[in-house]
Amino acid sequence: MGAHFIVQGGKSLKGTIHVNGAKNAVLKSLAATILFEDTVRIENVPLIEDVFRAVELLEDLGIEVERKNRTIKIKTKNLHKTNLDINIARSLRASIVMIGPILAREKKAFFPHPGGCVIGKRPINLFLEGWKCMGAECRETKRGYTLKAKKLKGCEFIFRNISVTGTETLMMTAVLAEGTTTLRNAACEPEITALAEFLNRCGAHIEGAGTHTIKITGTGGKLLQTRRKAIKTIPDRIEAGSFLALGALLGRPLKVTGCDPEHLSVPLQILQEAGVPIRKGKDWIQVSKSRKLKSLDLKTREYPGLPTDLQSLFVILMTQAEGQSMVHETVFEGRLNYIEELNRMGARITMCDPHRALIHGPTRLRAREIESTDIRAGLAFLIGAMIAKGESRVNNIYQIDRGYEHIEERLIKLGAQIQRIES
Ligand code: EPU
Known about the structure:
Blueprint: E1 4-8, E2 13-18, H1 23-32, E3 39-43, H2 49-60, E4 64-68, E5 71-75, H3 86-89, H4 95-106, E6 108-111, H5 125-133, E7 137-140, E8 145-148, E9 156-158, H6 164-175, E10 180-184, H7 190-201, E11 205-207, E12 213-217, E13 230-232, H8 237-250, E14 251-257, H9 265-273, E15 278-280, E16 284-287, E17 298-299, H10 311-318, E18 323-328, H11 339-344, E19 348-353, E20 356-361, E21 369-371, H12 375-387, E22 391-395, H13 398-401, H14 407-412, E23 417-421
Parallel strand pairs: 2-14, 3-13, 9-10, 17-18, 21-22
Antiparallel strand pairs: 1-22, 1-23, 3-5, 4-5, 6-8, 7-8, 10-12, 11-12, 14-16, 15-16, 18-20, 19-20
Helix pairs in contact: 1-2, 1-4, 1-7, 4-6, 5-6, 8-10, 8-12, 10-12
This protein binds uridine-diphosphate-2(N-acetylglucosaminyl) butyric acid.
């Protein structure tokens, strides 16, 4: 059954909430340490379940991991094996990102089909095609995938669909390959740019990260020598955006600190158009509950568009807006699956097809028992419970803990009434 939250809804929130390091950045830095011969230090690490699982995967490979507060030191001198632990890898999408560096370093790897959030089919064809393009052979069985290569050679690879982890994984594989790799139609997320900048500081040759064409000149199979060994994890723009949606519903006002407003330009534009009062500085954003929220059409997009990871949070916001909004989820076909549960809380949302839904607002949400289905839907339900009058119970909060560190403690400081019940 796992732990659950008991939430007393209808409480306003006031104060400051700090944004932690980005989950989707640190999971990739952890994988990148496999490219190194010596110790790497990762700073500003969020203490979340997905990071703990990724660390367990590294330790299982024989890598030494030492954690002190938010700093992790990783020594990858020896890799005892090249196969990922099946059970852990099945629970974490980012496990596949480790395979790029393992293959590049050892010329072989085994991994099961990666798990993670149940938000759609989540195929891995682009990864496999990319590795084949660099000269690897792939054998697929019921248990998973075995990759082998005599050597990895640079190639030109075109992503048919833009893939975030696909771009990161092939970029890291190419760092240790021979020759030049060009990745076209690559993803542009800030986490990718941060990863490339770190690798470049340590001797890699990556050009164009943050654009749709990335060129990587391989270091020819030699392991990288770290020159400046620390990587500071960038702020989590999804956590920041989630808090902004929360502040727009309950803030009197709510100040989100330690974030990068430049990474949130489209979500901020949407909030502004919806009538949410916003103030911002270099690394903070303050939002307040709007007297009258305007309905808006939402469409998720690759960066710099509205992130799919913020979609459920912005849908919750639109349930409180005057009029009809359309949400169009373009990235994952299962990412509106939570809508049914939200309707049970009193929202009036009509599914048009798996990718589109009409939100009729405003609706008063009712307190009830809710099941978290994935990280972002889980947080949306928690916020739903916080705006509903009465007592709600949010189950399966492991999903929320996967991506948001000690969320209830941070929200209680703002005036929320949430209790974690361990079972
Ligand atoms: N796709 C393919 N083939 C592939 C890979 C992806 O067709 O081989 C498709 C997917 O089915 C999807 C689209 O490409 O329709 C985009 O998926 P992408 O590969 O970009 O997603 P991802 O890399 O698996 C990362 C984040 C997700 C985030 C997405 C989109 C990590 C660990 N995960 O996933 O984060 O939603 O990018 O921005 O970085 C979350 O944090 O809650 C989360 C799910």
